Amino acid sequence: MSKKTNMTILQGFEWYLPEDGNHWNLLAEKAKELHKMGITGIWLPPAYKGTGGIHDVGYGVYDMYDIGEFNQKGSIATKYGTKEEYLHAIKALQAAQIKVYADIVFNHRMGADDLEEVSACLDAGDNRNNQISDAHPILAWTKYTFPGRGGIYSDFTWNSSHFDGVDWDDREKRNGVFLFEGKNWESDVDKELGNYDYLMGADLDMTNQEVIDELDRWGKWYLEQTNIDGFRLDAVKHISFRFYLHWLTKLRKESGKELFSVAEYWNPEAAPLCEYLDASGHVTNLFDVPLHFNFYKASSSGGNFDMRTISSGTLIDSRPDYAVTFVDNHDTQPGQALESFIQTWFKPLAYAFILLRNTGIPCIFYGDLYGIPHDNIQPVKGLPELIKARNICAYGTQTDYFDHENVIGWTRSGSSAMPNSGMAVIMSDGASGNKYMCVGAEHAGETFVDLLGNHQEPIVLNEAGCGDFKVNGGSVSVYVPIAAYSQIIK
Ligand code: CA
Ligand code: CA
Hints:
Layout (H helix, E strand, L loop, with lengths): L8 E3 L11 H15 L3 E4 L4 E2 L10 E3 L19 H13 L3 E6 L3 E2 L4 E11 L2 E5 L4 E8 L19 E7 L4 E7 L21 E3 L4 H18 L3 E4 L9 H13 L4 E4 L6 H10 L5 E3 L1 H11 L15 H4 L4 E4 L20 H10 L4 E5 H5 L12 H10 L5 E4 L5 E6 L10 E6 L4 E6 L8 E4 L8 E2 L5 E6 L3 E7 H7 L2
Parallel strand pairs: 1-2, 1-17, 2-5, 5-13, 13-14, 14-15, 15-16, 16-17
Antiparallel strand pairs: 3-4, 6-12, 7-8, 7-9, 7-11, 10-11, 10-12, 18-19, 19-20, 20-25, 21-24, 22-23, 22-25
Helix pairs in contact: 1-2, 3-4, 8-10
The structure holds calcium ion (2 copies).
One calcium ion (CA) binds next to loops.
């Protein structure tokens, strides 16, 4: 996989978008504005009908052939709109030169149409390798017949043989992790809880050839229907590590498309992520979850974080060519399952870090760009400007000045192909400070100004192309050539 330093992805949703079926239309309307800002790709939320119908964010996946077309789970449209509106949004975004990435949820199914009697053992909740009951009959929601779709596009129906287990026995009205008799949890999954194959719903059995064939057929169908450019893969730590090597390789080969991919492997350590990359044949990029947690620690340490270690133990440090960097997402926002929201004061520092350095593909959170009205959270100040600065200025050699526990900085030398490029970034998690940094001799005598306006005073570089750059306490300043400043602030 080649390096894609000029890509900037937008996660095109947050958890609490209005349930008005209007999001696809809204994104279609924003397409040109996003392109102008410098967004090159957008990750759209799961587009298929979930068990919660119009209320489902998309991860409670029920029928993957229903992308807002059939009257199932109480509505035709999904939370985001109808199939027609989805396809229109994809076309509008692609027409604005934005690649569109679909969210793929293959770990589980939810909201089955019927019960089946299945023999199952109860697992210890904290150790899934430990069965604490003998096999006994339970009533499981595992029969998916999709009566509302009536066999259109696919006559495949699901039954208990396609799943490994569920978390509800409808006979005893009892919660628990139930492993079906004759089944094993996948062995190549995350090791948390002994074995983390099971997450929720009816868990797909990725060793069943009928399941693999069906997911292959669906992938081909989905690509033909939507003309999508790539994928965001949900919850891969709960899915056999070999599965996506098969699925993506086959789909790429058959379609002849590159099909960019980024997967969610939620773990604060880099080691399991590297293990996944190796086991899955580097078939996908991964979100840099450890970097998110470094930002979280730094933002919550009241200035006592050692900024020199901001990228320690991250994917951009160990596997930079496969890292998709992010600050927050729909799971880390307030009220959500993996809540670890970066504090407001630190957001511009974190975004400067992922947008203006030469490693990782940055992914901007919709809730940071547009705010989260549900929780009264405002858009991150200066974020559109930082995205523009990435495209106009963040080129050339990177020189790091990670030499102080509070104040760190770096410069980009710029590129002759980009006339207003080059920059100097300085940030502090503690007191205000300054740092002598060199952009490059070719910039001698040029005037640089802080794009974010945190420091009003222009800085004229000396004959060596260096200057003494200043930053306020708990802040970031991004100094760019004055011509770039006028280009960005319009
Ligand atoms: Ca699983
Ligand atoms: Ca499974």
